[in-house]
Amino acid sequence: MLKQRLMTAVMLVAGFLLLLFNLDPLWFCVAVVPVVMLAGWEWTNLNAIKTAASKFFYLSALLLSLAGGAFWLNLFNSVDSLESLDMHRGQQLMLLASILWAIIFLWVQGYPSSAIIWAAKPVLAVLGLLLLAATWLSIVLIIHQPQGQWLLLLAVAIVSLADIGGYVAGNLFGKHKLAPVVSPGKTWEGFFGGLSFQLILIAALMLFMPVGVSLTALLLLIIPVSLYSVLGDLFESMLKRHQGVKDSSQILPGHGGILDRIDGLMAALPLFILLYLLMSPL
Q1: Which of 136, 155, 172, 184 is disulfide-compatible with 272, CB 3.0–4.6 A?
Q2: pTM higher than the cut 0.90
Q3: Which domain range does residue 243 map to?
């Protein structure tokens, strides 16, 4: 199982890097759409949408949501130009997405009682459209920044290190449960292990990044994004626990489904670009 998991991880990383540094920003955004659609298909499973017609309708609505968001941001007129993409609208969308995730945090804290609010099929269906569209639009906004490829790589690294640090520290030292009702396997030791990996990342960036990047700016960007990535992981764990399933699908050998791999990114990327835009002149 571990060998299969590692092989899948290597292939995913290689494919991501290949696309990231060989496609222009617009085409990279287009290349990510099938991944978002697969995640949408998995969301229909978590929402117990079973018929082919219902799944088709939902995925069509998701595609229209992506297209609507792209036109709202003026993506198809921007090509790879930062000037044409509407960053003000993007910042507003990412603020709303980050607020939604803050509300989701309250739902995770209040589970299972909170299920009365979010577990109804129509609510979960709309929630999936909003969260998946916001994830894709955050990628659009990040990749169109100056040095956007490296920024997106940094965002993914933050989420990955939170996950890896949590896994390592949790397995070595984990005793105290972080959210036993939602995800019994996660521990406070793993949580702080993930944070410690962020400090290592910040130290590395301070050593190798150009002069002028402050420690305060890195802390204000990386630590909140890392915390939101944990929230994304806990939220998907809550959904799976509520539906009584282990993984969102079996499409990725050793890893489960697409949602199982991007749950942290779904929460982290909107906050990442929101904080970045707030720190940078628009």
Answers
A1: 155
A2: yes
A3: 2-279
The total domain count for the chain is: 1
Task: Give the Cα separation of 62 and 65 in Å (integer).
Answer: 5
Matching residue, tokens 């929101």? 274
Q: Which two tokens stand for residue 181?
A: 């009702």
DSSP string, 157-186: HHHHHHHHHHHHHHHHH--SEEETTTEEEE
CA 121 to each of CA 54, 57, 66, 126, 223: distance values in angstroms, whole numbers, following the listed order: 12, 14, 21, 9, 33
Give tens-digit pLDDT for 105-162. Answer: 999 999 999 999 999 999 999 999 999 999 999 999 999 998 999 999 999 999 999 9
The model's pLDDT over 182-237, given as tens digits with 9 standing for 90+, comes to 988 899 999 999 999 999 999 999 888 766 678 889 999 999 999 999 999 999 99
